[in-house]
Design a protein that fits this description.
The structure holds 2 protein chains of 2 kinds. Chain A is of the alpha+beta class. Chain A contains 16 helices and 13 strands.
Chain lengths: ~425, ~400
């Protein structure tokens, strides 16, 4: 029966090509607009480290006090003093700290011109905590952090650029006139949004190219290329040392805590730490600390651009209108065939069969609309660079799940839209239809 | 034209009527808000920068060797002399940031040293005596910096300067009732006073985010070169020599020293590119809303054509009867136009309420402004006209139904 209904559907659709085309166009455009904006939205609002996002927490300590903090919230990163103290305390299973660096890089042998590479000064825990995959070698060891070693981990892309993709472990690169030994090459790794560096506004930044020990970067006075926030009442002295040990915040700190119990006890530790600072006379206020997990942090920092949310909602509204349009057109189409339905019903077809016939017809329209929508979505992916800034546009891509979803949404939505017209069609009274003829 | 029979007929195809009205309502709601978003974004983009943008470009030079601050200072001064000596270049100045750049320094501005909360926030532009001429921004009061006032500082030094020049909007914000000239303000962390020696005409800040809305035209010019790991040079080309200057300037810098990096992709940017980059999101949003509005109106119109055509087809016999009983073609045409108008009015009434509701919700969610009623009025008129236009073709076809139809069965 299915293939027979399919044949009937094709015949019916061919009978009024204008109406059919209109429905297909409406569904195609509606689903494409929704899918394009959805692909951007899912990229910017996704969980960047699923499975672990509830175990990673960023640590915040109020070093400004109720008069100067942001409506009760501590600043969005830590001072050098707090960051190094908390990491040294080792009260979490793993803990890391980081700041943005942008050293000039000279390839081995000095044979070509230097360029600027973006990366992070961090510690050995970073790689395990954030699940960085390695192509060659691995992270440096905690002893390298303590020994302030001149080692570096470079990305797959930088390794291509510097060493043509060869295993470069053990080779040397020059950064800002200092030599570093490569200990590891990461595989391509670019979680989006880059949750661990929202502080510097790099949530959708270009992929990271290199990593080096925090301690070493501080030793060679490598300056942060990210954000530095001094608040409104910080009287830092003059010069780098005064700044380094002053109250400007520029170091995000992350800890890994396996469960709620660990989080609770870490929060207690943080409160104790802040209370100690209060006793020591550094803070003149009660402890004000925060522990935010990845999704909470992304939420708090409003990482999803409002443009992306508005676009998605407008596109969904657009799709709803297209469906309302389709309901109207299907109704017209089905009711025009009242006589035909009457004959089928009089010959003994139960309502169920009428439902089946017309829903199959609707599904056919939905499928064709979905295919058109898919083409338009693919086309839209080229144009997405026009609609969103490059950093965000590069995140949107057509993958298998998007293709499947486009077709599924088109068919399901059309079939849902067809329920009312089909119900009306199935209600046709056979006797009345036959009589009027 | 009598409305009663139309209403009576509508009761017989309630579903179709409701569907068209609903479609008109939703379309109105979305198109009104989309147009409003487009208007807002365009208004943002049309804001003046206060800079004479033609012939202006920006070079970013990173110091490859990260040498010591004294050497950077010497190099920057040599660079500036070299740039200013170029035949294609009119003037050049060092900068840490510039209008529309997006990143840079912003400091809290205070009127009293012991003030707890800031009076306002402002962009900090490190400048020299050539900065205003290079930007093409004029002073409306006071004087420019002199060459001898220009100092140098490292990024981690507490910023302090005895003299500053501020933008018109900042001056008005700080001293709404009088001139800011000669007054003392606090722009640095160290609570040391700075005297306002000049006030510029409109000058935009580097901040372009929506959070910076109230501060978008606050700028403080500080007479110092910032000795950072990199610097920007603002360069004004002589009239009609932009292309030559864009080519000459990086060459001149490399001739000064090879130990620098000027990124091949965005190391040199014309101000037009800076502006384009600053407003990328706004352009994208406006285009997307534009496409959605146009397609939406087209689909709604097509939907009306489709459903009305079906009704005309369904009622050929009735139309024939009416014609046979003496109705003119105009009567039939009028019937369908009026019917559509009635449905349209129902739709736009609901739609207007929806449009305002959606806007109010967006106001709470996205810091959007209130929708002005003008948009709703324009939208209502546009949709009613669209409906009438869409129904015209099927209605004309209906008016051509011959009275003979009355005698045919089906």
């Amino acid at each position: 029966m299915f293939s027979y209904y399919l044949e009937l559907a094709m015949r019916s659709l061919r009978r009024s090509p204008g109406l059919t085309l209109l429905m297909v166009l409406a569904i195609g455009f509606g689903v494409a607009a929704s899918m394009i904006t959805w692909s951007v939205f899912r990229a910017v609002s996704g969980d960047p480290i699923p499975g672990k996002s509830s175990q990673l927490y960023t640590v915040l300590v109020d070093n400004r006090g109720p008069q100067y903090n942001d409506e009760g919230e501590p600043p969005e990163a830590l001072t050098y003093t707090d960051a190094t103290a908390l990491v040294a305390a080792r009260k979490a299973a793993h803990q890391t700290l980081l700041f943005d660096v942008a050293p000039s890089v000279l390839p081995e042998g000095n044979q070509s011109i230097p360029f600027i590479a973006d990366g992070y000064a961090t510690n050995a825990d970073f790689f395990g905590m954030f699940e960085v995959p390695f192509e060659y070698g691995g992270p440096w060891h905690a002893s390298d952090d303590e020994g302030r070693a001149a080692v570096a981990v470079i990305s797959h892309e930088l390794n291509q650029q510097l060493f043509n993709g060869a295993d470069s472990v053990g080779r040397e690169i020059t950064m800002d006139r200092h030599t570093y030994r490569v200990v590891g090459v990461t595989a391509h790794w670019d979680p989006q949004p880059r949750y661990y560096d929202v502080f510097s506004g790099n949530q959708f930044g270009d992929p990271v190219q290199l990593y080096l020990p925090f301690t070493r970067a501080v030793d060679v006075a490598m300056d942060t290329s990210g954000r530095n926030n001094c608040g409104s009442n910080v009287d830092f002295g003059t010069g780098r040392d005064a700044w380094l040990h002053g109250e400007c915040v520029w170091v995000p700190v992350w800890v890994e805590l396996a469960d709620q119990a660990a989080a609770t006890s870490y929060r207690e530790f943080l409160t104790r730490y802040a209370a100690e600072q209060q006793r020591a006379g550094r803070f003149h206020w009660a402890p004000n600390v925060r522990l935010r997990d990845v999704n909470n942090w992304l939420d708090h920092m409003h990482v999803v651009p409002p443009e992306s949310r508005i676009s998605l909602m407008v596109a969904l509204g657009f799709f709803v209108i297209c469906l309302v349009n389709t309901i109207g057109l299907l109704l017209a189409k089905f009711m025009r065939r009242a006589a035909e339905i009457g004959v089928r019903r009089a010959l003994g077809a139960p309502r169920r069969e009428i439902y089946r016939q017309f829903l199959i017809e609707a599904a056919t329209v939905g499928l064709v609309g979905g295919v058109l929508g898919l083409l338009l979505t693919a086309l839209g992916m080229f144009g997405v660079g026009l609609l969103f800034e490059p950093e965000i546009a590069r995140l949107a891509h057509l993958d298998f799940s998007l293709v499947a979803m486009t077709l599924l949404v088109a068919v399901v939505a059309t079939v849902l839209a067809a329920f009312y017209p089909t119900w009306r069609a199935a209600k046709v009274q056979p006797a009345w239809q036959l009589k009027s003829n | 034209m009598q409305i009663k029979p139309i209403l009576a007929a509508m009761r017989h195809h309630k579903a179709g009527t409701v569907l068209i009205a609903l479609q008109i309502a939703l379309t109105l709601a979305i198109v009104c808000n989309a147009l409003f978003i487009i208007h807002q974004r365009m208004a943002r983009m049309a804001r003046p920068s206060g800079v004479e943008e033609t012939n202006l470009f920006v070079i970013r030079s990173d110091w490859a060797d990260k040498s010591d601050p004294q050497r950077i200072d010497v190099q920057m001064q040599a660079d500036l002399i070299a740039l200013r000596q170029l035949g294609s270049v009119q003037d050049a100045a060092p900068a840490n940031s510039f209008p529309l750049h997006g990143t840079g320094w912003d400091n809290f501005i205070k009127l009293q040293p012991d003030q707890v909360k800031m009076t306002t926030d402002s962009a900090i532009y490190f400048s020299d005596d050539h900065t205003l001429a290079t930007l093409g921004t004029h002073l409306i009061a006071g004087r420019n910096f002199t060459a001898s006032e220009i100092g140098a500082q490292q990024p981690r030094d507490a910023m302090h300067s005895a003299q500053v020049i501020i933008s018109k909007d900042l001056a008005q914000r700080l001293y709404p009732d009088g001139s800011a000239l000669g007054k003392t303000i606090y722009v640095s962390m160290g609570n040391k006073p700075s005297t306002v020696i000049g006030v510029t005409d409109t000058l935009q800040a580097h901040m372009v985010g929506s959070w910076a809305g109230p501060y978008a035209y606050n700028a403080v010019l500080v007479p110092a070169r910032l000795l950072n790991d990199y610097t920007y040079y603002l360069v004004r080309a002589r009239p009609s020599q932009l292309a030559a200057a864009l080519r000459d300037a990086p060459k001149a810098l490399y001739a000064q020293s090879r130990m620098r990096i000027i990124d091949r992709k965005d190391g040199v940017m014309t101000f037009a590119q800076v502006r384009q980059h600053a407003y990328e999101r706004d352009v994208g949003m406006a285009i997307l809303m534009g496409i959605i509005s146009v397609v939406l109106l087209a689909i709604t119109a097509a939907g009306i054509v489709g459903l009305t055509s079906f009704w005309v087809g369904q009622r050929r016999k009735q139309i024939g009867v009416r014609r046979a009983l003496g109705a003119t073609r105009g009567d039939i045409l009028n019937y369908f136009l009026t019917e559509n108008l009635l449905i349209g009015i129902g739709g736009v009434l609901v739609g207007a309420v929806l449009a305002i509701g959606i806007n109010l919700w967006m106001v709470t969610q996205f810091e959007m402004a209130r929708l002005s009623l003008g948009y709703v009025v324009v939208g209502v008129i546009a949709l009613l006209l669209l409906g009438q236009g869409a129904v015209l073709a099927p209605a004309l076809r209906a008016s051509h139904v011959s009275p003979v139809e009355a005698t045919r069965s089906v």
